[in-house]
Specification:
The structure holds three protein chains of three kinds. In chain A, about 75% of the residues lie in helices and about 0% in strands. Chain A has nine helices and no strands. Chain A is globular. The termini of chain A are far apart. Chain B has two domains: about 5-115, Beta-grasp domain (Ubiquitin-like (UB roll), Roll), CATH 3.10.20.30; about 125-250, Fumarate Reductase Iron-sulfur Protein, Chain B, domain 2 (Orthogonal Bundle). Chain B contains eight helices and seven strands, in the order E-E-H-E-E-E-E-E-H-H-H-H-H-H-H. In chain B, helix 3 (about 150-160) packs antiparallel against helix 5 (about 180-190) and helix 5 runs antiparallel to helix 6. The radius of gyration of chain B is 21 Å and the shape is elongated. By secondary structure, chain C is an alpha/beta fold. Among the domains of chain C are: about 265-420, Succinate dehydrogenase/fumarate reductase flavoprotein, catalytic domain (Flavocytochrome C3, Chain A, domain 1); about 495-625, Fumarate reductase/succinate dehydrogenase flavoprotein-like, C-terminal domain (Methane Monooxygenase Hydroxylase, Chain G, domain 1, Up-down Bundle), CATH 1.20.58.100. Chain C contains 17 helices and 21 strands. Chain C has helices at about 15-20, 30, 45-55, 95-105, 110-130, 160-180, 245-250, 315-320, 330-340, 360-370, 380-405, 460-480, 495-515, 520-535, 540-560, 575-595, 620-625; strands at about 35-40, 60, 80, 155, 185, 190-195, 200-210, 215-220, 220-225, 255-260, 265-270, 290-295, 315, 355, 415-425, 425-430, 440-445, 520, 560-565, 625-635, 635-645. In chain C, the strands form six sheets. Chain C has a five-stranded parallel beta sheet with strand order 5-2-1-9-17, sandwiched between helices. Classes of the chains: A mainly alpha, B alpha+beta, C alpha/beta. Chains B and C meet through helix 1, helix 2 and helix 3 of B and helix 3, helix 5, helix 6, helix 11 and helix 12 of C.
Chain lengths: ~210, ~260, ~650
């Protein structure tokens, strides 16, 4: 979980960086350049395959872990500790992950899917920037995206720290740093993601 | 401190034996002093049950001073009750007030099967220790104790890990029933000392293997174990166990 | 039967060396076919089982707890003595030996005690090698502290959890032998009978406490490492399950009981808070290193401790015993506390308590710490805060424990303490080889009577338990079993096993069928009250005579009116307890008989008839320089055998700590 999670965290950084290009408010010039690079560069396309493999591995491992851990307490407690002994999101990684996954399906079917389809069928790349503009004029799409970012944020608050702890880095010296960085990451990255649909919807950018 | 008496309602898990199906039973106790320990309150209840010709509630307890690790009640959703770093036997009734209802359950984990009522079988912990939680030194092998100086900070850290009482609250509190805090405490205690060095890798691998064999769940770093540990064993030990295990794996250590 | 203690001849310091070099050995191949039963897995039992397993014997170990790691040795707090002289303060094997003999009020065997002092250093080496995390100095070497009854620093410790760390060390060794197949561990099993074949102990009947089934186990030898019997007083610092049953069964099979009346009352325990009290909690003797004990100078002074000015406090131990002060031995400190409370100077709501005050230690440490940090402050609050941190590091777990139990903060207001039953120096009589008067039946650790005389010094119980298990029994057992190498394992359908199991079964059925009206717990409490009132800290002929009759009557009532709920063939803690209390009801009588017979005061045994004008204990060496070894004849009938104590090296004198 830890290694695949860390890879996905790296991916988020790249994705977030490219998305942030829209805030130049240059009509999508820089964004389209970056998207073109990402969509056509051979190395990136190869890594993309790896990304999917890791994503699927992360999902499958996660669900198996969830199922295994659930099965180890056949008779549950009548009264549960709730949030007194652990934060809710740390116990809800499977739920949060599933929400992220559902969002991802919607997200991929809107942009990545049609684009790759168009590429592979010889119709060339689609105008992603314009597509975004259109999609994000719909309030419901924006709401779904905001929900996705919300789930991602909480997933990251625990996931970031947990990945390092599993690799044995949660020592006295580094634990605070890791937790702090994790929380910062879990706030900054999802907010940047969330600002895209909001910016388009509120027409902050043209 | 002001003393007072109280009447309480107790909902306690009753289960005849490992095969039987259990259920909650409700009891009333009265005149409980705020000075009593939680287990003394159970003594009062059991005396009452014996007097009524009913069967008393079976629960594990022995030293009643927080060190043997035998007591094991899950009280109102909390392993060993609500007090921080406190075993069930050291929880005192001044925590409660007149009219309270208290729900008491056994440790629940498939690897800790119920023996009767609130008594569970924690022998899995012994088997994990038997798998490698020791330093292989026969009696008579030892050199002079001061031949091997140990850095005070490491000795103190080792001691902090070694204060684990093996009560199983970590497993009981963990939503995954993971035993990582217990295993990591033992591995840390020995890995931090120079005496433990020769078997460091095989120890981590063997103990983890036994833990998996015993059907404990996997750690997802939730941290409820640390919050409920009566001895304050730190999650840092789990990080250390992870390092020890990864290190052993990378260096190709196999189970011994 | 004449008692033969089998002390080797020769110079005191060469007895054990000579014994080790000349005792018979069992070769490795023969060890594999010799089976040993070890009952109890505390320090003595776990260390013996592990060591014998390492040597190649086939060992079966039993404990009534759910894991061998839970034996009550785990609760020992303060430390373990060893004559290492790491502090260069004049310690030596001889001095440890001498302090122990003197501390025991000249009622222990010189040979045994010297052996204990000799192996003490090996114990520390062994434990460190096992990974016991003893406290260390900044240079990485082991740290020591002082304990009662000594003037050197020879106590090794691991915060206030020394017993826990030592037991975990022995437990790890035991589990290692379990994994190697050399030891078969039976937890949640209670030994209920010794099986005798041709006059030798050859096995046990044990009850599986989960299923209630009786089991027969054969052993060429049986080792009882079952601890002390302080729970006969109901309230004690012992664990709830601590009991005399194994030792008592052995006694009834012919093992003599040595000095049953020697009970240690520990001076620093948290006082009783009410009738509900189920056990008493010790505050380690190590606290007397830094705590000062006092009561108000005025009778019935009801002011808060912190409101009583310095000059109106009576630091009675420092006043009466200036040489040892607060670090006098336990028996002396306990009696002094009782004397003050009985005279009306007690504190707290019950007036049965004295103060253990850390204020001056906190201030002293605070000044040192301020100096270390280069703070030239005279601000009392800063100094006290610094001092509190130091005290917290030394005794934090004990202070926390006190706060949880009493709801008071001992860093701010002095602890209230009172003496409580803690340890029993008496136990099964054993010879130098730790064998009881029943051939092939051994007793180790607190279960035997051997090394502490009439009073045990602090930090010596851990030493004795581990000495017996790690370093004594491995030699002495071989010396005997060398004669047994051709004895084949006796099948457990042998008539002796069948008969023993039937006896156990009958007794259990009898208990279950009384179907009376009073709970086991209630009988235990009543017995405890008789024992504490009449056979406790101060004893006299009248009280003891009454107690004997009261116990007899109580026992009769027990066997006609006890109510044991539940069934036999199930997990039934009430039944387990009933069997134990039934044995306490017999032992209590013997303790009173022994106390009545010993018309002198020595160590923990204080006869009011035998005291100096100043109220100090007065020994009577002319008439009582012997070990009382009681033989069981029939119900309430015990025959006294005397083992004379010959002091070849030490000359018994009046024990003075002034």
């Amino acid at each position: 979980m830890s290694l695949t999670g860390l890879f996905l965290i790296l991916f988020l950084i790249v994705h977030c960086y490219i998305n942030a290009q829209i805030f130049y408010n240059d009509g999508g010039v820089r964004f389209n350049e970056a998207a073109h690079f990402m969509g056509t560069n051979f190395v990136i396309r190869t890594v993309e395959l790896g990304l999917f493999a890791f994503l699927i591995l992360h999902i499958v491992q996660g669900l198996l872990l969830w199922a295994k851990n659930r099965s180890r307490r056949s008779v549950g407690y009548t009264v549960s500790a709730g949030n007194k002994t652990s934060p809710w999101y740390s116990r809800s990684m499977a739920l949060l992950g599933t929400l992220v996954l559902l969002f991802l399906i919607v997200h991929l079917s809107k942009f990545w899917g049609p684009n790759r389809l168009s590429q592979t069928t010889g119709h060339g790349e689609l105008p992603l920037y314009n597509m975004m503009k259109e999609e994000f004029s719909n309030m419901w799409v924006v709401v779904i995206y905001l929900c996705g970012c919300f789930a991602l944020a909480w997933h990251l608050v625990h996931g970031f720290y947990s990945a390092f702890q599993t690799l044995g880095m949660g020592t006295h010296r580094y634990k605070g740093l890791i937790k702090g960085t994790g929380v910062a990451f879990a706030i900054i990255v999802p907010i940047i993601f969330a600002l895209m649909p909001i910016a388009f919807y509120l027409q902050w950018i043209a | 401190m002001e003393h007072y008496n109280m009447n309480l309602t107790l909902k306690v898990w009753k289960q005849k034996n490992n095969k039987a199906k259990g259920a909650f039973e409700t009891y009333k106790v009265s005149g409980i002093s705020s000075e009593m320990s939680f287990l003394e309150m159970f003594d009062v209840l059991n005396e009452q049950l014996v007097a009524e010709n009913k069967e008393p509630i079976a629960f594990d307890h022995d030293c009643r001073e927080g060190i043997c690790g035998m007591c094991s009640m899950y009280i109102n959703g909390r392993a060993h009750g609500p007090w921080h770093q406190t075993t069930t036997c050291q929880l005192h009734m001044r925590e409660y007030k007149d009219g309270d209802t208290i729900v008491v359950e056994p440790w629940r984990a498939n690897s800790f099967p119920v023996i009767k009522d609130l008594v569970v079988d924690r022998s899995a912990f012994d088997r994990i220790v038997a798998a490698g939680g020791y330093i292989s030194v026969n009696t008579g092998n030892a050199q002079d104790a001061n031949c091997l100086p140990v850095d005070k900070q490491r000795a103190d850290e080792s001691f902090a890990a070694a204060t684990c009482i093996g009560c199983g609250a970590c497993v009981a509190a963990c939503p995954n029933t993971s035993a990582m805090l217990f295993v990591s405490a033992k591995v840390s205690h020995l890995a931090l000392l120079p005496q433990g060095e020769p078997e460091r890798k095989s120890r981590a691998v063997n103990m983890i293997h036994q833990m998996d064999t015993e059907d404990f769940g996997s750690c997802t770093n939730i941290g409820a174990c640390e919050a409920e540990c009566p001895k304050g064993i730190s999650l840092e030990n789990i990080a250390r166990l992870n390092r020890e295990y990864l290190g052993a794996m990378f260096s190709g250590s196999k189970e011994a | 039967m004449a008692l033969n203690s089998k002390i080797p001849s020769g110079q005191l310091d060469s007895k054990w060396k000579t014994y080790k070099s000349t005792c018979k050995l069992v070769n490795p191949a023969n060890k594999r076919s010799l089976e040993i039963i070890v009952v109890g897995t505390g320090l003595a039992g776990a260390s013996a089982a592990a060591t014998l397993g390492e040597m190649g014997y086939k060992v079966k170990a039993f404990c009534f707890q759910d894991s061998p790691r839970r034996a009550h040795s785990i609760a020992a707090q303060g430390g373990i003595n060893a004559a290492k002289n790491y502090q260069n303060d004049g310690d030596s094997t001889y001095r440890l030996f001498y302090d122990t003999i003197k501390g025991g009020d000249y009622r222990a065997r010189e040979g045994n005690v010297h052996r204990l002092a000799e192996v003490s250093a090996n114990i520390i080496d062994q434990c460190v090698a096992q990974g016991v995390p003893f406290a260390r100095e900044y240079g990485g070497l082991l740290s020591n502290r002082s304990f009662g009854g000594t003037q050197v620093q020879r106590t090794f410790y691991a915060a206030g959890q020394t017993g826990q760390q030592l037991l975990i060390g022995a437990y790890q060794g035991l589990e290692r032998q379990v994994s190697l197949g050399n030891v078969e561990m039976h937890s949640r099993h209670e030994m209920l009978e010794i099986v005798m074949v041709d006059g030798k102990a050859r096995g046990i009947i044990a009850r599986n406490l989960v299923t209630g089934e009786l089991e027969r186990h054969f052993g060429h030898a049986v080792l009882l490492c079952t601890g002390g019997y302080g729970n006969v007083f109901y309230l004690s610092t012992n664990a709830m399950g601590s009991n005399v049953t194994a030792a008592w069964k052995a006694h009834k099979q012919g093992a003599f009981f040595g000095n049953p009346c020697y009970t240690q009352i520990h001076p620093t325990c948290i006082p009783v808070s009410g009738d509900h009290q189920s056990k008493l909690t010790l505050m380690s003797e190590s606290l007397r290193n830094d705590g000062r004990i006092w009561v108000p100078k005025a009778k019935g002074d009801n002011r808060k401790a912190t409101d009583i000015p310095e000059e109106e406090r009576d630091y009675y131990l420092e006043r009466r015993y200036p040489a040892f002060g607060n670090l006098v031995p336990r028996d002396v400190a306990s009696r002094a506390a009782k004397e003050r409370c009985d005279a009306g100077f007690g504190v707290g709501s019950s007036k049965m308590a004295v103060y253990l005050d850390f204020a001056s230690a906190i201030e002293r440490y605070g000044k040192v710490e301020a100096h270390k940090q280069g703070l030239h402050t005279t601000d009392k609050n800063t100094i006290m805060a610094l001092g509190r941190d130091v005290v917290k590091e030394k005794y934090g777990n004990l202070f926390d424990m006190y706060a949880k139990i009493t709801g008071e903060n001992p860093y701010e207001i002095p602890m209230r303490i009172y003496p409580a039953v803690h340890y029993t120096m008496g136990g099964l009589w054993v010879d130098y080889e730790l064998m009881t008067t029943v051939p092939n039946l051994y007793a180790l650790g607190e279960a035997n009577f051997s090394d502490h005389g009439a009073n045990r010094l602090g930090a010596s119980a851990l030493m004795q338990g581990l000495a017996d298990g790690y370093f004594v029994i491995p030699y002495t057992l071989g010396n005997n079993l060398a004669n047994d190498i051709s004895t084949k394992a006796i099948p457990t359908d042998h008539p002796a096993f069948v008969a023993a199991e039937k006896d156990v079964n009958d007794r259990i059925n009898r208990l279950m069928n009384i179907k009376g009206t009073e709970s086991v717990e209630s009988f235990h409490k009543r017995l405890g009250k008789i024992m504490w009132d009449k056979c406790g800290m101060a004893r006299n002929a009248k009280g003891l005579t009454e107690a004997i009759e009261e116990i007899k009557a109580l026992r009769k009532e027990f066997w006609s009116n006890v109510r044991v709920p539940g069934d036999i063939k199930e997990f039934n803690p009430e039944l387990d307890k009933a069997g134990r209390v039934a044995d306490f009801l017999e032992l209590g009588e013997l303790m009173c008989i022994d106390a009545l017979n010993r018309n002198e005061s020595c160590g923990g045994h204080f006869r009011e008839e035998s005291q100096t004008e100043e109220g100090e204990a007065q020994r009577d060496d002319e008439h009582f320089m012997f070990v009382s070894a009681w033989e069981y004849k029939a119900d309430s009938q015990f025959e006294l055998h005397k083992e004379a104590l010959d002091y070849e090296v030490v000359h018994p004198s009046a024990r003075s700590y002034k």
